[in-house]
Amino acid sequence: MSLRTALKALPTMLRIGFSEAVAYRAEMIIWVLATTMPLIMLALWSAVARGGPVGRFGQAEFTGYFLAAFCVRQMTSSWVAWLVSYEVKQGTLAMRLLRPISPLLAYATEVLAGIPLRVAIVLPVLGISVWVAGVERAVPTSLGGWGLFALGIVGAWLITFYLNVLLGTLSLFLESSQKLMEVYMVLFFVCSGYMFPVEFFPPGVRTVMEWLPFRYQMGLPVELMTGAHATKEAWKLLAAQWTWVLGLGVVSMAVWRRGLARFAAFGG
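User: That's the sequence. What structure does it adopt?
Assistant: Structure tokens below.
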């Protein structure tokens, strides 16, 4: 597939993906309801904060953080690992490979096409966050802050997508990659800042987590959204995030190509 072909096909694929997202909006609503963990954690930590601040977090800070986590989760979610695994088991991946467009581009557009509907869910939540927590605790308050957040959210989406591609592709080598996906989800919940801020971990554990991708999927964009970092520190963290983007991009593409060669060799 040439770059020119991909670029010509992209608008059509996005339109089709958006139409499917609208047609299957009930599924999207179910998915949104399945990603309400930040709202549960907000209720828990707000109750804890009634007795006094937890570090730098009072009730308003917890509100801003967890509503931001809910929004970031909606914007960066990906189900490609489960989709690839299912299509490998059913044999339908072979049909995708007959098309002139890369399956990975098709998977990516399916995920991206649903974002407008997710934005419709995110905007009211942002409004509530600004009203309850205050604008400085809910969203960036400067153009530069919005730019840093935009870089962070794109990087988070790419890390999540590439990890999903990698996990899904492992189903071409293993009888099932389902268990690995479950392990990944547990690590994501605990290490990303999804259930509680990363800074609550002891310093030694936090240092280890700086070398894992999970914090850059969730914690970093949430921190950028709520103004937790000065500009210099934000750029340093973004550099680490985009290093993960590049590294995972290279690894996932290499594993994908090798997996497809194995798939073809076995008559997929």
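The radius of gyration is 19 Å.
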